[in-house]
Every structure is written in C-alpha cells, then in structure tokens.
C-alpha cells in the first residue's frame, strides 16, 4: 500500500471557510424539514415552524380567588359607615379558585373581605325583622331555590354577604385569554423547546407540533488494534472510547449518533462501512486512519469513494484531519488521538449539526486570565492549550495542564482552552490570555487553586471537598515545591503543597518561606510521608540505593527542577559525590510521583524517587530513603476565606478523609491540620 501524505497544512481559518463554502454551495447545510412529535415529548427539540395557539387560556372567565362572584354595579355605595348587603344567591354566589364565573357576574370579592350574615324573619308577623346572625365563612348555600331556610316554628332566614367597600370590574377574575389568546404566537421557528414552552403549548390547545429532524451522524471507529470496553485485551490493544465521546457530543448538540463497531485496517471493510453509513446518515465521522502511516486508510477510502476536500490543518493537536465528500454528503476523517478527536469534531461537526437544526452555535464564555507559567509552542502551528482556571484575589489565573494529543485527562481536568497563534513560539509567564471556557464562571470563582508539589493526598482532598461542599472545587497544578511558593509570591494560587528541605538547618519549608515572602504565610501540615526508590516487584536488578544509579544497566527517571523530590535526590547524590553525567536518564523529568512510578512499572526507567503511596498504588517495591514533612503554605489573606476554611475543616476534623489517606500507605497523619508556622495559632 502506498504511503499517503498530508495534502495541505492549511491554516485553521482557511479550512473552516473552505468547509463552510462547500456545505453552502451544495445546499447540504440548510435546516432540515420538520417532523411531527407530541408536545409532551418536545422539550429539547427545535421548532420547525412558528407555533400558534389553537385555544385561549383560560378559555372561560374563572375566579382567581376563593370568594363571592357579584355584579360590580351592586357594590356601589358600600363603605365602613354604610355597609352593603348582597343577597345569596341572587346578588352573590360563592366561587372557589378556578371555578367558572356564574353567568352575568363580573367581579369577585375575596372571602376575607366579606362578612356573611343571616336575616331571620317571622312569617306569622309579615316580613318584620326579628334578628341577624353572623355566620361561618363561607355560609352554606340555601337549601331552597327561594334563598331562605326554615329556622324554627314559623321562622325562616335569608343569607347575605356584607361588604364595606365597592368592587371594581373583573377584579380577582381570570378573563378569557388572560394568559394566551387564540391564534397568538407561542413559539417562533428555530426555537429550542424548554419544559415551560411545552406547558404553554398544551395550555394553548396543542398536542402535536413540528420540530426539526434530528441530524443523524454515523461514527465509525477504525483500527485493527481497537477493542471494545470490557473485552479481554492484550498488550498492543487499545480500548475504544473515542466513538463514545463523539456520540455523547452529538447527543449534547441535538443530533442522533449511530455508532458502528470498530472496523479493522482494511480498505474494503472501511469502504463497505462508510457506504452503508451514508445510506441513512447525514454526516459520517471516521475515527483514526487519517494520518500518514502505512495503515492510515481513511483519506485513501474517501478519495476512492468521493473527494478529499482537505487533508491536514495547522493546529496542534488535530493536524491530520480529513474533510471529505461522498455521495453529496459530508465526511470527516477524525484523528485517532482523543484530544485531537475532541477538538476537530467540535470545530467542524458542531456548526453543521446546529445548522441542520436551524440554530446558531452558542458563543463560548470567555474571560481574560494571566498565564501562570511560560509555555513554548511550535512555530507555524496554532495550539489549543488546555488550562485550569481560578480566581486568586483579584486575578484570574490560567495554569497549563498536560499537552499531549493522547492525554484525555487534560480535557477532563481543564476549565478551558487558550489558543496560541501559529506565528508565536509561545507565551511568557504573566501574559494576559483569552480563555475559551468549557466550565462555567461560577465554578471557577469557587475553585481553590493549589500549585506546587504533587502528593496523592491532594487528589483525595479534592474529592472530599467536592463531596462535602459541592459548591467548591480544588484544582491542583504540579510544578514542584519551589514553583508553588513562587506562584504564591506572584498571587497565582491560594495554597501551595511544599516539602523543601533546607540542607543547612535540616528544617522543612520554613527557611524558604522566610527567604521568599514578606507577607505572612501560614504553614499547615498535611502529612509526613515516606520517600524512596521505586523498583519492579522483586527488585530484579538488585537496586539498593543511589550508588547504583551509575551502573550501565540502570536507567533513572527524575523529577522536574524545583520539586522537593528533586532537591532530596540532588542532596543524596551530592553527599555521595556522584557525577550526574554518569546517571543515565537524569535529564528525563516527570511532574508527579505517579508518573515516575508508571515509568518504572512500564520499563521506561528502572528506578526513580517518589512516595510510598504511589509505589503501593502501582504494585511496585519500595526502598525507603527519607521521611519528610509535606505542608500546605497559605497566605494569610486566603487562609480566612470560606473555601479554604472548608478545606481545612476536612483536614482537621474529617475522620473518613484521614482514614482514606492512611489506607493509601506510607503516611503519618499525627500532625495533620496543625499550624506549623508561625508557632502561634492564627485567629
């Protein structure tokens, strides 16, 4: 098979323009016709035509209160000095809320504003008044059509209401069409239906409406190495999850995903699947096989079945995108790396799925933020940098997370994207950037920003904060202990995890706090932890300590500069007078204990320094080196904030949190939550 190559390295804006122009010229991007659905099933759908009321609501005059229906003209002259009596039922009829108004009555007096009375007469003496009685509210209606009841021997009564002020026309009456008038416009075309909209349509006499047909999108994962989740897999297999991500996005955008089973790297099978999909689907997305490898068949198949409009755009990640056209239907060749798949699908599928429904893509929320650290970028490639975002004092801070195209967790953890233009080689620390948010602003404001040394306890703490106080989140960025303290100094974090050992005093953290800060910093102990060397189970290379780092058969993996673990490593190497140039892998750096442990587990390195909890998590053996104190450094101005106090409350009082930390292994929690510095307890 002839190796395919990128046809272009097209700038993103040109690729989007080219794609939209083709869609427009072909007429494919026009909104779909409508289909009839029941109103009760319509929320979330898009109206295909204007919706007009078939019935007024209410469709009869009804009482808006419990009270008495009267004719407002009969109430003229009523006052406290001259109360007026209206006879039941001739002049007043009791009505409950929602009941139809009696014919000829045009106003309602609330039951609280009437005084029901009973007039008793003696028929044997004519119609002479004998006495009046106050009655319960409301009185029972008369038992005879004459409006009076027999009371005693020769005595009968009439019932009245007594009022002390006149009524106005139609007071406390819901008139016909008060809410909706027949033929009134309820919803316009191209409107996303909400539950309240469905209620209004039902009130307006509608039971069915026309909505846009859901765009049907075929999602075809490819690759001979792809296996379904839950299957028995072997080394070299890749669990297929990209199609689930894209299918979820399609559903979120109002479309209907049609997922195909993974197709092996075979031109005939891929052609068959693609042609089958396009029989019913409006758009097909083929995942993977769009690059330039010997088994990347997607552009080949699209070209054989139709036309490749474009292959390759200058974005990172997402370069090997294919825009295609088969049987007058659009086809996307989506890169196989998950971050690339997510970004390119949102850029090129989302606008089309929205256009078919007759709606615009909602603009993403954006905000301006300061970049927490310098970021280098490839010249000539527009980069989508994933960032965590938080409000620290008056500043909005954006902290970069992992940048690899295959690091799905970088999107899970990210709050938004920063676009680095193609003609820039990077961004400096403190640069003001525009962040396209994928999380809401209120979540960002309520996020505790933790920058500094990595520890698994921070991840546990983040979960407990969300569990105990759902309003708040804890975001951690791993730049090492020194990097965390510098971030605090620059006002880019609320707290910093630190375990810096001062060689002169043998003291943790405090000497560095005194050297770096003029403002008051409070050190709160989180844990004491075991640091040691990771080795494979059984220690097959018989590594005993730092002295073995210079062996020809040993590859070491380091932590980044500024990390407390790096300082501990260098301290031991210096004491042993080991030449760093003789250590294979010393320059290779990772940012977390788990990353170092993973490198050892997977054979990237033979050993590395880290905490016991990471060793236990991945089933490695552990050679103890030192017990160290891991503290949280908190500026006084943030220490007393509600979200930091909630965090400290969990650290100090939550037994479940403490037990979870202990179960991780290698931790001493005897001083957990204790203020280490300054010695006096803060108020």
What does this structure look like?
With 683 residues, the chain is α+β, with helices and mostly antiparallel strands. It has five domains: 12-32 and 214-356, Molybdenum Cofactor Biosythetic Enzyme, Chain A, CATH 3.40.980; 34-59 and 177-212, Molybdopterin biosynthesis moea protein, domain 2; 62-174, Molybdopterin biosynthesis moeA protein, domain 3 (Beta Complex); 366-445, Beta Barrel (Beta-clip); 497-677, 3-Layer(aba) Sandwich (D-Maltodextrin-Binding Protein, domain 2). The protein has 18 helices and 40 strands. The strands form eleven sheets. Strands 33, 34, 35, 36, 37, 38, 39 and 40 form an eight-stranded mixed beta sheet that branches. It has a six-stranded mixed beta sheet with strand order 18-15-19-23-22-20, sandwiched between helices. Helix 3 (242-252) packs parallel to helix 6 (338-348), helix 4 crosses helix 5 and helix 10 (456-468) runs antiparallel to helix 18 (655-664). The protein is flat. The chain starts with 11 loop residues before the first helix and ends in a 6-residue tail after the last strand. Residues 127-133 and 135-156 have low confidence and may be disordered.
Could you give the distance between the termini?
A: 73 Å
Major beta-sheet overview:
8 strands, mixed
Low-confidence stretches: 127-133, 135-156
* Percentage of residues in helical conformation: 10-25%
- What's the mean pLDDT score? 90
Please identify the structural class as seen in this structure: alpha+beta
Give the beta-strand count.
40
CATH superfamily caption of the largest domain: Periplasmic binding protein-like II
CATH class division of the largest domain: Alpha Beta
Can you tell me the CATH architecture of the largest domain? 3-Layer(aba) Sandwich
Helix segment tally: 18
| Strand portion | 25-35%
